[in-house]
Amino acid sequence: MNGSQDLVKQLVGAVAAEAGSLESGPDIAVIPPALYVGQVLESAGTALQVGVQNVACWQSGAYTGEVSAAMVRDMGCRYALVGHSERRQLFGETDEQVAQKVARVLESGLTAMLCVGETLEERSEGRAEQVVAEQIRQGLSEVGADQWGQVVIAYEPVWAIGTGKTATAEDAQAMHLHIRGVLESVNAPANEVSVLYGGSVKADNAAALFAEPDIDGGLIGGASLKADEFLSICRSFPAGA
């Protein structure tokens, strides 16, 4: 929940201006608060994709204050985050609600970025892989066989977000490899689903993370609010990956 009209002009404008010239050519999406989506779409042009941070469990109806996936698609967005750790922790979103949101996103023709990840307590108890596996299985329980091309997984270890603790590239790779195995277990094309890492990615650790074989990109948090930092992360993406 950060932003202003001035920030959109400065940040999105700067990123869009350079995005097309990046040699590695990664796909770049900006996912702002819903109120600024229209302005971001205008500033993004064709260089950037745009998404939203959350959608409703329903496609329409008497749900004052909610934003449906169909509305998001109507605005011209491509992506929707679902199940972000803050939505789970602060707003009590359950795996069942996450699955409903994923279904609505896919029905609308958008790509769902399903966020999964364990807390420090769950990791300390040795339950990290179990927790992540359950979030994936339940969150993707309503995905049809022809919809896997609309699914992206974002692994965000809650214990490594804004805490000063850092997951090593090896830690992240180990969980990403586990996630591939979970995808296989639910009959998903595991090597075709992008798996992003979202645990405090910064310019100084992005290259090491993106060099790992099962890390396909990043879900960038605080570093995305500074154009120079964000573009440095984009430049860290391996050429031709």
From TrEMBL:
Organism name: Marinobacter persicus
Physiological role: Involved in the gluconeogenesis. Catalyzes stereospecifically the conversion of dihydroxyacetone phosphate (DHAP) to D-glyceraldehyde-3-phosphate (G3P).
Subunit and interaction comment: Homodimer.
Entry's EC annotation: 5.3.1.1
Binding site for substrate: 162, 200, 221-222
Top-level taxon of the source organism: Bacteria
HAMAP family hit by this protein: TIM_B
Top EC group: isomerase
Family annotation (PANTHER family): TRIOSEPHOSPHATE ISOMERASE
GO cellular component, one term: cytosol
NCBIfam families: tim
Reactions catalysed, as given in the entry: D-glyceraldehyde 3-phosphate = dihydroxyacetone phosphate
Protein name (database record): Triosephosphate isomerase
Active-site residues per Swiss-Prot or TrEMBL entry: 84 (electrophile), 156 (proton acceptor)
Family, per entry: Belongs to the triosephosphate isomerase family.
